[in-house]
Amino acid sequence: MRCILIEPFSGVSGDMLLSALIDVGADENEVRKRIEDVSGLKVSFERCKRGFINALRMLVEPYEETEKTKLSDIIKLIRDSDLPDEVMKIAEEVFVTLAKAENVVHNEDVVHLHEVGQKDAIADVIGVCTALHLLGNLPLYYVPPIITGKGVVQTSHGTLPVPAPATLEIIRECKLITTHGSVMEELLTPTGAALVGVLSRPLSDSYVPVRTISIGYGAGTKELAVPNVLRARIVELLQFPSERVEMIEANVDDLSGEELGSLREKLERETLDVVFVPALMKKGRMGTIIKAVVREGDGERVANLIIEEGGSLGVRIYNTLHRAVAKRDIREVQFELGGVKESSRVKLGLGLDGRIVSVKAEYEDAKEISDRRGIPIKRVIRAIEDAGWRLFSSE
Predict the structure, then answer these.
(1) Predicted confidence band at 242 (pLDDT cuts at 50, 70, 90)?
(2) Distance of alpha carbon 302 from alpha carbon 293, whole angstroms
């Protein structure tokens, strides 16, 4: 399975990530056109050296800065553009993540973007999302830990500790794996943190064998003892990547159907996967075994949710399991049902060689069509998945 692997040994900023993706193979002219169309900035890329490493850096023509930019203004800017829908969607998600962090830190009722609301941040986000699209939407992984730097940084809010408060909030929200490192500089910016947090996953097993296909280096602006570059590689994974997870189990036997439904909905939001298994408990009571998979470090928090909401007096936590993760992709299919054209999303599962091994209808789409048309959902799902196999099985 092909993927993009980034190595943040000298931190991450938006322009470093964008330059690395272009250096590794994204079309520079197309990326630049998209950036300039949306942001109104003039950008260029040039070769430079950081230490002894030949890298690509991004240059932005000077522009007049604004003090604050509303999230709604940026979303409108994106939606009024001619960007592909997929690029719009992930760019919006990055800016929402940035805005939430800024809102938590500055405690404002109206969500604004401060340092990260400048046009160069818009250029970085649009550029990175476009570059990933041009590279075939390959899954993006980072090699942890991300180096944040330490010390203090000067901002429009005054002197702040590194990582800056907004950056640290994104680290927390996106569960990024970080360390300070030894450099007394800001190496991880809010924009860099949001891009990595939204678009990538950690490659938890650094010993996964890979075959390197192409290499790129994106240059930062600092002169450091360690070259201030971000390395990106397109690699062929020779086994499925894995992630570290925890398994949680608990028995409950005194909840009503409504209470079980409420607990299930909350656990679906907080876990990677959850199942409820009917069981015969002590003294012939009917009960439920709850089994949930969570990311490493989330076990105690989710266990506490089960104790508070489910009344369980004991939750079993199995620590540090490894879960193989197949590549997944969401596509849209057009199909005909009862002589009427419909559309739905399908979830594709891909094997190591990139072949499609499963096609699953998106349940919410199938349910909407079923309810609207009065057609049994099993028939709708079958029509969606048949269309998906016909369209994508030859890829």
Answers:
(1) low
(2) 10
What do you get for the CA distance between the two ends of the chain, in Å?
14
Residue 301 has pLDDT above 60, yes or no: yes
Q: What is residue 310's predicted lDDT score, i.e. its pLDDT?
A: 80
- Distance between CA atoms of residues 234 and 24, nearest Å: 7
The residue with tokens 């506490």 is 304
Residue 133 pLDDT more than 70?
Answer: yes
Report the mean per-residue pLDDT for the chain.
88
Q: Among 271, 270, 274, 269, which Cα is nearest to 288's?
A: 274
Of 25, 2, 33, 30, the closest CA to residue 218 belongs to 25
Q: Is the pLDDT of residue 172 over 60?
A: yes
Q: Read off the amino acid at residue 16.
A: M
**What pLDDT, in 10s, does the model give residues 330-340?**
889 999 998 99
What structural domains and CATH numbers belong to the chain?
2-237 (no CATH), 242-324 (3.30.70.1380), 327-392 (3.10.20.300)
Enumerate the H helices of the chain as residue ranges: 14-24, 28-39, 71-79, 85-106, 119-134, 165-174, 190-199, 257-270, 299-310, 363-373, 377-392
pLDDT tens for each residue of 41-92: 899 999 999 988 999 999 998 877 666 678 888 999 999 999 999 999 999 9
Return d(Cα 367, Cα 362) in angstroms, integer: 9
For CA atoms 136, 196, 175, 118, give the dihedral sign. Answer: negative
Q: Which residues contact 56 (CB under 8 A, 6 or more apart)?
A: 19, 20, 22, 23, 45, 46, 47, 48, 216, 217, 218, 219
